[in-house]
Amino acid sequence: MPHAIPEPYCWDESFRVFYDQLDEEHKGLFNGIFDCAKNRGDKGKFDSLYALLAGHFKFEEGMMEKAKYSEFSAHRDIHNGFLAKVKALEIPLTDASVDFAKNWLVQHIKDVDFKYKGKL
């Protein structure tokens, strides 16, 4: 069952993975998606979000690799798939694009990232 999308769209304690840097980066991703939703025609904000996503994924994957996390490869593939979909979005963003990004992040953290709690 899908997790509820918070409104207003922002990180809260229910998204905590208990790794301080990852939690801070997740907050930044929520803020980046929120900024893009409010400024759908702003390519600069969109490019900034993409850079945040790519940087976060790289850092998170590095932690997984260092910890020899058993689901690293599958997790990396999920990240790469999302980045490809985000890169293909057109500016200005549509309601469907914004909803997709909001939903993806919520479901990803709670269903995929939560699996690494206590393992990195």
UniProtKB/TrEMBL annotation:
Binding site for Fe cation 1: H26, H56, E60, D113
KW Metal-binding (keyword) present: yes
Superkingdom of origin: Eukaryota
Cited Pfam families: Hemerythrin
A GO term, aspect molecular function: oxygen carrier activity
Residues that, per the record, bind Fe cation 2: E60, H75, H79, H108, D113
Alphabetized UniProt keyword annotations: Iron, Metal-binding, Oxygen transport, Transport
Keyword match Transport: yes
Residue ranges of every copy of the Hemerythrin-like domain listed in the record: 18-119
NCBIfam families: hemeryth_dom, Hemerythrin
PANTHER family given in the database record: BACTERIOHEMERYTHRIN
Protein family: Belongs to the hemerythrin family.
Protein's recorded name: Hemerythrin
